[in-house]
Amino acid sequence: MTSTSDTAVQQLNIDGEAEAPMGHGTATLPAGLSPRLYNTDLAPTQRAGRSWTAYSIFTLWANDVHSLGNYAFAIGLFALGLGGWQVLAALGVGAVLLFALLNLSGFMGQKTGVPFPVMSRIAFGIHGAQIAALTRGGVAVAWFGIQTYLASVVLRVLVIAIFPGLRPLDDGSILGLSPLGWMAFVFLWIVQVVIVSYGMEMIRKYEAFAGPIILATMLALAVWMFAKAGFSIAWSTGKDLSGGDMWLHILGGGALWVSIYGTFVLNFCDFTRSARTKKSIVKGNFWGIPINMLLFGAISVVLAGAQFKIDGHLIESPSDVVASIPNTFLLAAASTALLVLTVAVNLMANFVAPTYALTNLFPRRLNFRRAAFVSAVIGLLILPWNLYNNPVVIVYFLGGLGALLGPLFGVIMADYWLVRRGKVSVPALYSEDADGTYHYRKGVNPKAIAALVPAAAVALAIAFIPALGALSSFSWFFGAGIAAVNFYALADRKQTFEDVDGEAIAVPSVH
C-alpha cells in the first residue's frame, strides 16, 4: 500500500478550513476534505492502536450465530424432514460460503479503515453511496425495534415468574403493548442506547462479555435436554427426505443461511476497520463461522431431537426449552442469558448499521452517539410490535429491502476486488472535487446504478413471484451474481487506479 502524507491530502480540491462534528467533540476539518463527507466517526482509523483481535471477531459470531432466530431456522430444517446429519450438512455449506464472503468483505475494512457507508462511495460515488447505506440502515433500524420487542417479551415472562404479583400490569393495551410490556421494552431500549453511546469500543467489550455466557448457556441447555431424553435423541421426525429433494433442501438451507447473513457480509467492514491484521479476521472468522456453526448445529439437533423423542413435538426455539425449566432460579438465570444474547445480537446486527448510515447522511450534524440516539428513537416510534404482527410489512417492506442486499454486495465486491484489485485512494473518498476519483457524475456512478437495477429486479421477482418460489432460497446469490457480472461488464477495466492510504486523515481507532 502506498503511504500518503499531508502533501497528498493537500493535492485534493481545498474546501477550506471548516468546523465539523468530530466524534465526541469538535475539531478542525483536514484541508481538502468536505464537511459533507467527513467527520471523526466516518474517518479512517489509524493502524496503530486498533483493538479488534481474533477473539473480538470470534465473539461477534459466538453471539450472533446462537441467536434465537437462527435456532428457529435450524430447528425448522429438522421439521422439514432433514435428519441430524443433513441439518449439519446444510449449515456446513452455508458456513463455508460465509467464511469466504466475510473474509473478502472484512479485508476491505481492515485495509482502508473506513465504515460501510464510506466504503460504498468507491463503487457508487460520494453521494450515490447513500443508496447502499440507507438500504442497509433501513432494514436494520426496523429489526432493531422488532428484536428489542422480542427481547422485552422474554423479560416480561421473567419478571412475572419472579414477581407474580405484577401479572395485572400485563393486562390492557397502550398502543399495542401492556403497561408491563412498555416498561420492559423501554428498559431494554435504554440499556442498548447507553451501550452504543460509548461507541464501537464499548460494543466490542459487551460482545466479549456476552460470548462466553451464551456458549455456556446453550451447551447447558443441550446437556439438560439430552439427559431429560434419556441420553439419546431422535435423529429425524420420521418424514425423512431422500434423493434429489433431500439435496435441494440441504443446498437451499445453506443458501438461506447465507441470505440470513446478507446484512453482515455487506457491512462487516464497520467492525473490521478496527481489526489489527488480516490474520485476526481469518482466525476470528474460522473459529466463529465453520467451527462455531457446527457447534450451533449440534446443539440445534440435540434440542430438537431430544424434545421430539420426549413427546413427539418440535420446539420452535431455545426459549421454549427455557420456559419448561421447573426451577424458578434456573429459569431466571437462563432467561437472563437469553436477554444478554438478544441485546448482543441487536447491537451488532441492527444498531451499528443505521447509526453509521445516519452519520453519513448528516456528518455535519450527527456523530456516532447522536446518530445512535436518532436510530433508537426511530426504532421506538415505528411501534415495532405492530410491524412484527403485520405479515404484509414483514414480507413486502422488510423482505423487499432485504432482497436488495445481494445486488448491493455484488456491485461493491466486483468493483473492489475484480475491477480495482483492491486499490483505493482513501483521502479521495472525502473530497467533493469535481475531478475526484469517486465523483463520477455529480457524485453518483451511473454504471453502478445500471448494474444494480436489473439485478435488484430479478432478486425481487424471485422473492415475491409464487411461480419462482423454487428459486427463492437462492435469491441472494442470483442478485449478487447478476449485479457483479453486470458491473464487471460495464466497468472500464483498462483504467489505472491509485492506491493511497488514509493515515494522514485517520483518527484513533478508539475515539
UniProtKB/TrEMBL annotation:
Intracellular or extracellular location(s): Membrane
Lineage top rank: taxon: Bacteria
GO MF terms held by the record: nucleobase transmembrane transporter activity
Membrane topology, record value: Multi-pass membrane protein
GO terms under cellular component: plasma membrane
Keywords: Membrane, Transmembrane, Transmembrane helix
Family label: Belongs to the purine-cytosine permease (2.A.39) family.
Protein name (Swiss-Prot/TrEMBL): Nitrate reductase
